[in-house]
User: Fold Sec-independent protein translocase protein TatA from Sphingomonas astaxanthinifaciens DSM 22298.
Amino acid sequence: MGGFSLIHWIILGILVLLLFGGNRFSAMMGDVAKGLKSFKQGLADDDEEQRRKAEDARRLGSADRPIDVTPNPRAADPVAPPPPPPPPSDQYPR
Assistant:
């Protein structure tokens, strides 16, 4: 009742082959494969372009900007340690 059994899938496959024919079905699958290959190649090209831009920006950015040597006022001030915990209270009898 719930899902398709093996015989249902076989009958469905035969119907698809009869409707589309062997050559037309294989041509459609070839087109799908070409589309997937083109999509993956486009993603790889985008990644390569972004990597190249980041590398150029890093290389050019470090040479164009002067180095900031002003002291950081927050780094010079030590942070006070947290206060010690309060001593245990004897509110609860043993």
Remarks:
- Residues 53 and 59 are 10 Å apart (CA to CA).
